[in-house]
Design brief:
By secondary structure, the protein is of the alpha/beta class. The protein has a single domain, classed as Rossmann fold, CATH 3.40.50.300. 33% of the residues lie in helices and 26% in strands. The chain contains eight helices and eleven strands. It has helices at 9-14, 35-48, 62-71, 77-81, 90-104, 143-159, 170-175, 180-183; strands at 3-4, 19-20, 24-29, 53-57, 85-88, 128-132, 163-169, 186-195, 200-210, 220-225, 229-232. A nine-stranded mixed β-sheet has the order 5-4-6-7-3-8-9-10-11. Strands 1-2 form a two-stranded antiparallel ribbon. A hairpin with a 4-residue loop joins strand 8 (186-195) and strand 9 (200-210). The relative contact order is 0.21.
Length: 235
């Protein structure tokens, strides 16, 4: 099986070389756990390797994403400017739609619940897709509808041979009864929790599921460092 580097050497070593290429991977976790940063590491590495990448941003503007990446030592701006990286502004569409609904008393168009339609905005030449955060589509649809739409999207992107990262916040994951985990090829759970003994926050990454991969039993602890991004502690 072909692998694609996660952008993090130590994580690659735990995944037999990286994410399984052409598969869908779910990254979930609570606020501040490093989900987006993990996705940025993949995008930076993939762009440097000459792959065509796309980030579907549902919560941040492209400008904010590029600034955040640069502060972590992951300069995505050159790739964005030359078209190697496409950032779709779903975030702005949602904002302007909400403003219009308030001002004009109109009903939402259904953007939040049309998960399958995301496939239509991804160029055919794309190799790597990161959707951050797919959880924003969950509040206005039922559990059955979410599962059906997510299954369909994941299947369609798999048929196109995209390596796809679905980032989902923990509250949305819980709201949908963790059903997304059953559809994808792999699941990585990230956490940012307070250690009751030290009263300090600790970040951990756990590979919960990765088919055709011998995964570690123990979570991997890490820090988020300026100009470096995710920095794993030594074993």
């Amino acid at each position: 099986m072909e692998r694609i580097s996660t952008g993090l050497t130590k994580l690659d070593s735990k995944l037999e070389g990286g994410y399984p290429e052409g598969k869908g991977i779910l990254i979930s976790g609570n606020t501040g756990s490093g989900k987006t940063i993990l996705g940025l590491h993949l995008l930076h590495q993939a762009c440097e390797s000459g792959k065509n990448c796309m980030l579907i941003a549902t919560e941040e503007t492209p400008e904010d994403i590029l600034l955040q990446a640069k502060s972590l030592g992951l300069n995505l701006k050159p790739f964005y400017e030359d078209g190697n990286l496409v950032i779709q502004r779903v975030y702005e569409e949602r904002v302007y739609e909400s403003i219009g609904c308030v001002e004009w008393g109109t009903k939402p168009s259904g953007l939040k619940s049309n998960i399958i339609k995301l496939k239509d905005i991804i160029p055919d030449t794309t190799d790597v897709v990161v959707i951050d955060n797919i959880g924003v589509f969950t509040p206005s649809i039922s559990l059955d509808e979410f599962k059906s739409q997510f299954d369909a999207l994941n299947h369609l992107l798999f048929k196109r041979n995209y390596t796809t990262i679905y980032i989902m916040d923990e509250s949305s994951n819980k709201r949908t009864d963790y059903t997304a985990a059953y559809s994808v090829y792999g699941v990585i759970k990230m956490s940012n929790m307070e250690n009751p003994y030290t009263n300090k926050h600790e970040r951990c990454l756990e590979i919960v599921k990765m088919r055709n991969t011998q995964i570690p039993d123990e979570p991997m602890k890490f820090k988020i460092q300026p100009n470096k991004g995710i920095d794993f502690f030594s074993d």
